[in-house]
Structures are given as C-alpha cells and as structure tokens.
Amino acid sequence: MRQIRELFRLKFGSLLPTSDRQIAAQLGVARSTVAEYLERAHVAGLSWPLPPNLSDAELEERLFARPNIRPGVRRRPEPDWAAMHRELKRPGVTLMILWEEYRAAHPDGYGYSRFCELYREFEARLAPSMRQPHLAGDKVFVDYSGKTLPIRDPATGAVRPAQLFIAVLGASNYTYAEATWTQTLPDWIGAHVRMLEAFQGCPRLIVPDNLKSGVLKASFYDPELNRSYAHMAHAYSVGILPARPRRPRDKAKVEAGVRIAQYFILGRLRNLPFFSLAEANGAIDRVLEDLNTRPQRRLGLSRRELFEQLDRPALRPLPDTPYEYAEWKLVRVGPDYHVEVAGFYYSVPATLIRQQIDARLTATTVEFFHRGQRIAAHARRHGGERHSTVPEHMPAAHRRYAEWSPERFERDAGDLGPNTVALIRAILASRPHPEQGFRTCRGVLKLFRGPNRARAEAVSARALEIGATTADSIASILRNNLDRVRSTARPEAPALDHANIRGSRYFH
What we know:
The chain is α+β, with helices and mostly antiparallel strands. Helices cover 40% and strands 15% of the residues. Strands 3-2-1-4-7 form a 5-stranded mixed beta sheet, sandwiched between helices. A 4-stranded antiparallel beta sheet has the order 8-11-12-13, with no helix packed on it. A hairpin with a 2-residue loop joins strand 9 and strand 10. The longest helix has 17 residues, at 277-293. The protein is elongated, with a radius of gyration of 38 Å. Mean pLDDT is 80; it is low at 125-131, 217-221 and 488-508.
C-alpha cells in the first residue's frame, strides 16, 4: 500500500507530468503494473490527494474488491465459530475433531487448512516464539497434561481421575504417554523409567516442567532438584534441565506434544469407559502407535521413522542393572539409637545418637548413610514387630544415653505411686530390649501430667489389670474413663510381682 500511495503521488501530485515508464523505473515495477493500478483507481473513483483518513485496509478493499462476492458472505457453509471456540476449551477437543464433525454435517464444507485459517482469523491471536534447534538424542521434554482421564471403579462405580504423562523427543517428535494415578514422586519417577525403557536408550538431557515432585526450588540460575529424582537421573547418566519458571516456550516440544496427545488420546478416547489403569494404558498404547506411525504433513515421514533414523542411533544404552525406585530422607537418630521410618524403628550404631543421617528407602530395604558412608542396612518392615535391632548396634550395657534409663522412668513414676511404677516396669519388661520401651514410658508419663495422683494410680491399675502396655491403650483408658469401671468378666488380676520383674535380666 505504501508503494501504491507513492505511485499516485508521482502520477498526480507532481507539478511536472511523469510518464508510466518513469514511475515504473522509480518504483522498480513493470509499466503494466503501473497502468493496472491507475485503472483500478479510476474504477474505484479515487482521486488525488487521497482522503487523509483513508487507511491501508480501506484502500486495499477499494482497489481490489471482488464485485461478484458480497462482503461478509461465504460461499460454503459457515460454522458457528463462537461455539467452536467454547468446544475447544473442553478436555481433548481440538480443531481436527471439530473439523471432522463439521465435514460430517457439511460434506461440501471447507477443507481442514481453510477451516483452521478461518478459525485463526476469528481467534485473532498471534504469539511470536523463538525456534529452537534440537539435536538427535539430545533432549526429551516431559510434563503432565493438565487434563485427566476418568477411570471408573467396577465395584463401587466411583470415578477417579488419572493423570496423563507426556514425553516428546526433540529431534523426531517421537511421543510417549501413559496414565498414572497421581503426580507424586513415585509416579513421576516411575513414568520416567518406563519412558526410557520404551525408548530403549537414554538422551543427554531431560527437560521437565517445575513440578514440585521433581524440582523443589524453581530457579533460572540454580534450580534445586528432589534428591530421589536426581539419583534416578544419575542412575541413567542423564542430566536434568528444568524449564525456566513461567516460560512454557522453553519446553514447546512437550507443550505441542500435550496438545497432540490430548487430540489422539483424550479426544479419541473421551467416550470410552475404563475400569482400570492397565486398561486405560493399553488403549493409550494403541492410540500412540497410530500417532507415531502416521506421516507428518510437512515432512512426509512418521515420528517412528524419524526416531529410527535420528534419535535411536544417538541414544545412549540403558544401564545393565534395572533402576529401583528409592526415596531419600533426612532423619535424626533417637536416644534409643533407633530411627523411625513409616512407623517402624531401625537401629544404627549407638555412637550416632541425636545425629542427623540420610535414609534411603526402597520397597525391600532401608539403608542409612552418615557423611556418604553406609552405616546400617535392614530389610524393610511392613508389618509385625515394629523394631529391627542389630545386636552390634547396641551399647554394652544399654546405658549409653544416661538421661533416659529404666531407673529414671521408675523414679519419675514413683512420684505418682506404686501402681504407676509397676506399669512402667511392665512396659519395659514387655519389650525385647528395655530401650525399645523408653518412648512408650515417656508417652505414658506425659499422659499423667494432667490427672491427679489418684487418677494416675487408678489408670495404672486398670492398665495392669487388662495388660495394656502401649501409650495408645492407656490414653484410651483415660479418654473413656475406663479406670472407673471395674471388670466383672473375671476376678481381679493378682498384683504384679515387682520383685520378679526387677530381678529379670534387663534390670541387673
């Protein structure tokens, strides 16, 4: 339009007449083009000077208007673009799905490319982005889709949403997806392990979003990774490069992969019922096979063909030993030289009492590390006896920690009465090692801070009568006033032989 305005100025605004040939030479166009524009101006009724408020769009419309087509009227059936825009906000719905439904209703309607073009005009949005080159075998982009896949419990009928994990290789766009129940650390790392097994190799870098399960602190300069996530990456010799916070274009590959996966997975499977996670993942595998083997329009090759040509030869081999999920925790050694893990207690060398150590937890083992050196290992307990004690970890006389001892708990109980002393002795005698009862004794004496001395004695007597030797059961006696109810089911239990208890091997 700028050159057309200059053409009109040279032709009509100059004091000296200027020929079409001279104008064409000055503007760098053909003389026939100059003649055509002048003819169009004559037909459009334009004169020099042009109106000052005439915009380029209006000038173009007047010069190049198509007289046989009324403005605003389409030659083919027009969709309801506002309804299309609303439909696109539904999970799994894309322009391809909407176009297929549109063509089913209007076989003579627009083709897919024109359909998309008209929608983009309606949407009127253009966001510039930087194009990033991706080398073969270099990066895999991972993320969870914001949409979920409903799975119905066949027994109760309750619907539980499953999360959709998406991974896209940078060079070939080869896509992996699976459904997991949650986005927590075990599911997050498990999805990575299965992804690498599906690729049959390891890329150089993994680019995740700043999901809290994997990235504890999002930062452009120094992101802090979850320790378990970092150990998984170390096991596979891959690097973790989190995307910048609030910069989704840093992982545009997976963002596009998420949209495509929602089209092929959530969109195509949205009307199918699923009754288990395995069933949903089986359907996802079948749809992914279609996605990865379908030729891409611009390249003429499928994602799988590009994967075999580009990414697979460049991927590094998987480690010889399969990765086992492990969770790391920072724990503190108790005064009984045991560490609590998920409600169970595991011993460590008594010299580490009250020190902080690292715990590595797998499904089968519990390992403890101090300053990078492994100091103890136990088979992980999921039931039965709550204490796992290695004899070598025990001090010579169980008196390594002088502040807590059987004598101290008996002395504190003696301030309340003989029944409380007998209860403390019974608790210590019921454990394989008296140190394992220290926590319970402390908890019981803490419960007795509130009640008066007579009430504490009554509760202790009731606990001895029914054989209650845990803090929870004694708290239940207090809470339900069971110390005020005498048992009628059997005669009163004989008094505890304090002398025999004190004479046991734990109190020598």
